[in-house]
Amino acid sequence: MRAAGLDDTYGAYVDDLPAVTLASLNMMSMFGLNRRLVGSIVGHLAAYEMTSSIPCRLYADGLRRLDFPTDVTAYFDEHVEADAVHEQIAARDLAGSLAEDHPELLPDIMFGAASCLTVDGWGGAHILEAWSADSSSLRTRASS
Amino acid sequence: MSADHEPATITPYPDGPLLVRGDVELHAADGTPIPSHRRTVALCRCGLSTLKPFCDGTHKPAGFRTED
């Protein structure tokens, strides 16, 4: 974040973020902090890892195109290769094994995966709509 | 016997890469070592990765399928 000229203080930008972005993070925390939702957090993690590698490559290529330094691109480059491994481990070994050992959790696993893709999709759609309208997706900047 | 020395394993994941776990050295065709700094690596099986020999997840949009 520092290499990109951003403030890396914890929560520095939280007031800039629209509710739809915070909803994604709050949902993940809710799944992770409640034992009864263990199937949902496992499904969420699997869906997240399964959809991470290719976007990380696009982020890294976009940052390179805009001449950001290696300090900025390295994080995303790292996650292309790392998440190609994590995808298999999270989906097959973790979520697959949990579903086999506890078939009653299968609906929760699928709910967590679907929630990840749906709610993160809302956040992504919000950002793309703002950019398509030539405005910021951030709430404090959109009004200025 | 060293506790941290386990035989390497190679696991083909359905519709996905080969996961290599353990202490292995990867070499290019000319014998040059291929640097790898993680304990588990995923090797491309669909032939479409932009990071070969490593997997970059491209098998999914490509619709790569295995026989299992």
From TrEMBL, chain B:
Keywords: 2Fe-2S, Iron, Iron-sulfur, Metal-binding. GO terms for cellular component: cytoplasm. The keyword Metal-binding applies. Pfam families: zf-CDGSH. GO terms for molecular function: 2 iron, 2 sulfur cluster binding; metal ion binding. It comes from the Bacteria. The keyword Iron applies. Residues 21-65 form the Iron-binding zinc finger CDGSH type domain. This is Iron-binding zinc finger CDGSH type domain-containing protein.
